[in-house]
Amino acid sequence: MESNHCSLSNMTHPWIEVEQKFVPRPGIEDRLKELGGTQESQISFRDSYYDTPELTLMKADHWLRYREGSGWELKCPGAGGNTSSHTKYVELTTEAAIAARLCEQLRSGGLGTEKVSDMLGQLRLQEVASYVTNRSIWKLALSGAGDEEEPLTVDLDTADFGYAVGEVEALVREEAEVPEALEKIHSLSSLLGVSEQEQTPGKLIVYLKRFRPEDYQRLLEKATGKNDEQSSEATEN
Ligand code: V4E
Fold first, then answer.
1. Alpha carbons 77 and 55: distance in angstroms, whole number
2. Rounded to the nearest 10 degrees, how much is the dihedral formed by the CA atoms of 109, 49, 42, 234?
3. C-alpha 21 – ligand 1 centre gap (Å)
4. Which position among 74, 112, 156, 210 has the lowest Cβ density within 10 Å, counted as fewest Cβ atoms?
5. With a 6 A CB cut-off, is 231 part of the ligand 1 pocket?
6. 55 and 128 in contact (C-beta within 8 Å)?
7. Where are the beta strands (DSSP E) in the chain?
8. pLDDT of 78-115, one tens digit each?
9. Who's near 26: CB < 8 A, 6+ residues apart?
């Protein structure tokens, strides 16, 4: 997600990210053009994810990463959690907000610093994954949407360990805007031929499965009942 990490409002009021991942089929870029989409940019960045040796954060659905060019980011579950094949996360991007949430999540008192890189050792956080993504970013406004409406973003990602994944994404500020965002994502996904039931794993999950199978297994063990089945089905490819 490319959000404005420096705006004042973002410091106090994080974005809510609503998204659906999908497997990009051949010809996806032509289909995006047909639908009126435009390629905004092509970027490349390295993500390094951090967690405790026990994966305390990931098991609690918290995802801490350092993204080259953007800095520290922490994705945490949104108030409403996940809905079917869509995920909804709040993304914290200021070090103060991330530090506070990490201390809360890892049950640690004040550490005398708000710099995330300075608290890694005390919180026993270590790198668990690191890879480069090449991302093609598309914007697309659905016909009928008003001029003032934010277009949807479609990211087409290829990770350097040989995995490609797409994502239809909307960013909203308020919980109340989520149902409408989900509806738009659903409409665009169906125009792109993505099934409602499609459960496509993200890059990190595939990375862990391939390169850190024991950690991946730990995460699966944490998942319960139906989620467990969905997670393993989702990563069979
Ligand atoms: C939220 C999450 C993870 C963090 C990585 O998020 P993702 O959106 O895949 O990364 P990326 O690079 O596309 O970030 P963007 O640039 O859009 O901000 S890794 C796993 N999850 C949640 C999750 C889960 N618990 N289980 C399964 C099967 N999938 C996803």
1. 16
2. -120
3. 9
4. 112
5. yes
6. yes
7. 15-22, 38-51, 63-67, 71-77, 87-92, 126-140, 152-159, 163-172
8. 765 555 445 678 889 999 999 999 999 998 777 788 89
9. none
* 21 burial type by CB count under 10 A (0-12 exposed, 13-18 middle, 19+ buried): buried
Any atom of ligand 1 within 6 Å of the Cβ of 202: yes
Tell me the C-alpha to C-alpha distance, in Å, between residue 23 and each of 167, 179, 192, 205: 9, 23, 11, 14
For residue 73, give the amino acid letter.
Answer: E
Contact 178, 172 (CB under 8 A): yes
Residue reference for tokens 């305390």: 56
pLDDT digits (tens, 9 = 90+) for 200-221: 999 999 999 999 999 999 999 8
Measure Cα distances from 169 to 3, 103, 138, 151 in Å. 12, 29, 10, 10
CB of 181 shorter than 6 A to ligand 1: no
Structure tokens at 34: 């047909």
**What are the two backbone dihedrals, phi and then psi, of residue 226, each rounded to the nearest 5 degrees?**
-60, -40
Residues written for the chain: 237
